[in-house]
Structure formats: structure tokens, C-alpha cells
């Protein structure tokens, strides 16, 4: 896969609009990329705009991959069914303009509550859970950021992901497949970067790239492979609470 196809995708954002949140649109609103049960985190007007942006003119700058925004609310002491009931796909974006349209119309991360999370996952089928077979051989880098730094770091990591800025930091056969921000009830939150092949993580310089993007912010990261944990659903479901 040629690297020239995947570089330079990050662009300038659109201005943020204030608009009333409403129920998700019915079929026929022009948002062919929505899943059967679209999230109501975006207003009808935003969804209409997205429907027009996805297949617009050539200047719309297609992303190398489709990326899906997800929202998660992780209940304390919840069951497996509770966990999955509180995981929602928001929208799948294919272009830079569509990305900014969603990003600018979601609640900012500093307005999320404790145990709420945003995820951006590569491709339409990949879910931000380790039970997903697409994540079966992967892992993630996790690092804490101060509350006041979270929004800036999250935006940099998002843009690096969709702009394929980690391409040259990965070993052959590996790739970044998602990024997450998890809100915690302490003086920090958690940023996570998912990769496809945990066996290749030691050959990666992803965190070095992150440090270059945000040189003024200290990062102490660790890597976790989920492969040995997959048989244990109870461990998996408690994972969001492990990183504190």
C-alpha cells in the first residue's frame, strides 16, 4: 500500500455551530452511512449536512479509510448486556469535511461525564471492544493526560489517526486501527491508541510520534495486549475501569 495515498489527510476545521439536539432522523434523510440505529448525539440538521458532504465534489478530500465515531457510557458494576447497551455508533465518516462536521457538533470531551468515552475506529465494522474478531490480535498504548490538556491532546491524536501520520511509525503488517479518550474521576483522563497486531508493537514508534505532536505535555505510556484476556469476558468488561 503506497504511503503517498495515506499522508496529508488532516485539514482545517469548519466553524462550530450551536444547534438543538434532536432525535435521530428517519430513513430517507440522505445519510446512507448511518447504521440501522443511528445515535441521537447529532442533530437532524447536522445529519442532513453530513449526507451531502460524504459524496460531494473532489475537493472534499476522501480519507484513506472510513472511520466510525462511537460513544460509550460504562456503568459501574454493570453486566455484559449493560455494557453493550451503552455503546453506540455515532456516524461513519469518509472525508475530512465529514469528520469536522461530526467533531464540531459532538459535545466537547471536557463536557463528558466520568466513565464516558469517545472512540474513533478504522472501518465500519470494527467495534471498540476486544471481543470483536477484528481486534483479536491487537493491543493498545494508553497514557494519562491532565484534565485541562485532554481536549488538545485528543484532537491531535484524532488528526494523526485520520491523516495516517502513524504510517511510518508502524512495522510492516501493523496499523493503528482506533483511538479512544476515556473520562476519569481523578485529575486526569486516559487516551488510548489501538493497533492491529500486538506482536509488532515493540517495533513501533507511535508514542514517539505522539510526543512530537504534543512536546509540551509529559506522557508516560504503557502497552497492553488483549489476546490473553479474550477468553475472560469479566476481565474485558472491567478493563475501562482498570486504567485509573
UniProtKB/TrEMBL annotation:
Family matches, as InterPro entries: TIF_eIF4e-like, TIF_eIF_4E
Annotated stretches, region: Disordered: 1-40
Gene3D superfamilies per UniProt: RNA Cap, Translation Initiation Factor Eif4e
GO terms of biological process kind: regulation of translation
Compositional bias segments (type: Acidic residues): 14-32
A GO CC term attached to the entry: eukaryotic translation initiation factor 4F complex
Leader peptide range in chain numbering: none
Key words of the record: Initiation factor, Protein biosynthesis, RNA-binding, Translation regulation
GO molecular function: RNA 7-methylguanosine cap binding; translation initiation factor activity
Membrane-spanning ranges: none
SUPFAM superfamilies for the chain: eIF4e-like (SSF55418)
Record flagged with keyword Phosphoprotein: no
Protein family (similarity comment): Belongs to the eukaryotic initiation factor 4E family.
Name of the molecule in the record: Eukaryotic translation initiation factor 4E type 3
Native source species: Geodia barretti
